[in-house]
Each structure stands twice: as structure tokens, then as C-alpha cells.
Design goal:
Blueprint lengths: L1 H29 L26 H14 L1 H5 L3 E6 L2 E6 L13 H22 L23 E6 L2 H14 L1
Antiparallel strand pairs: 1-2, 2-3
Helix pairs in contact: 1-4, 1-5, 2-4
């Protein structure tokens, strides 16, 4: 069913948004920061990368190039693939390109990075299997739990069986 792939992507995006909020909370606790305290630009700030089988660099570079070429917003928010594997992708975005008037990440940028991370995971899953198709985010929503006050990384992790099930369903039902 077409809606099951879109529904799965929406669920991934929601899980990614939750993970971003959890990650910010964890970093703040580890570094004894108060909520909303300026975190400063830290390019190395990402965690949770439990990489299994590493995706070739060229595929990650191709995804990043595709985003910047085909989705102008991706260039404006300066996203980059931080890491990826067969069932996980992490995307980094800097505060500087996504800052709002409060000095925190603009909610629209955070949402966009989450959606593009889910989109990127879908793109990688198709490319790894030699498949092609149009990827459309038909439905998505997000709940913001707290402000993000520094560079951030969004991670989408999918169970391999879930990918295979959804792709088989899509191949059968269109």
C-alpha cells in the first residue's frame, strides 16, 4: 500500500524528532548545562551512531549532493550526512544556518532536517537495492519538546526487517 510507506516514513520522522530532543537533553545533562544555555558551535557534537555495515562514502556523498541539487532548502539549512549504514543515517545541521531570533534552532529547520533524514533513509534503502522511484513525504508531524541551542544531529534508525517488509509491500501494491 502506498500509504504504508508514507506512514512508515512519518513514523520514522516522529522517532527521529524524539531522538533529537532526547539527545539534546542527554548532552545538556552530561555537560551540566541549564536548559536553553548557549551551547556554542560544536561540529563534533553527535552521538548514538551504532554503525553496523558502513555505507560507501560515495553513496553518502551522492545523497548529500542530491539534496543540495534537487532540494534547495537543503543547501540553505546547510545539512550534511554525518554518517550512514545499511539501516541508519545521521544528518548534521549547524545552528548558524538555522538560528531564529531567540538564538535557538528555528522550528521549521528542525522539522526540515527530520523530514530530510527520513527521506534520506528511504533514498538509501532504495539505492542499496538498485531500486528507483519518487520519494514523496505525504504526511508528517512533529512535537517540539524543548529548544535546541546548538549544532544538531538527527538520526534515523530502522530495523532491517521493516525496510524489507515495506519495500516488498510497495513492490506488490505500488
Amino acid at each position: 500500500e502506498r500509504t504504508s510507506l508514507a506512514g512508515s516514513l512519518a513514523a520514522w520522522v516522529e522517532r527521529v524528532a524524539e531522538a533529537v530532543a532526547d539527545e539534546v537533553d542527554r548532552h545538556d545533562r552530561e555537560e551540566h548545562r541549564q536548559p536553553g544555555e548557549d551551547r556554542g558551535p560544536r561540529r563534533d557534537e553527535h552521538v548514538g551512531l551504532r554503525l553496523r555495515r558502513q555505507i560507501p562514502y560515495t553513496l553518502a556523498a551522492e545523497l548529500q549532493s542530491t539534496w543540495h541539487r534537487e532540494i534547495p532548502l537543503a543547501g540553505a539549512i546547510a545539512i550534511e550526512v554525518a554518517a550512514c549504514s545499511a539501516n541508519e543515517i545521521s544528518v548534521r545541521a549547524p545552528l548558524a544556518a538555522n538560528r531564529n531570533l531567540h538564538g535557538t534552532v528555528f522550528a521549521g529547520s528542525l522539522f526540515s532536517v527530520c523530514v530530510l533524514t527520513g527521506w534520506g533513509m528511504t533514498w538509501l534503502a532504495l539505492r542499496q537495492r538498485g531500486l528507483a522511484g519518487l520519494i514523496v513525504v505525504a504526511e508528517s508531524n512533529i512535537r517540539y519538546r524543548k529548544a535546541v541551542s546548538g549544532d544538531f544531529v538527527c538520526t534515523c534508525r530502522v530495523e532491517p526487517d521493516a525496510i524489507e517488509t515495506q519495500l516488498a509491500s510497495f513492490a506488490t501494491n505500488g
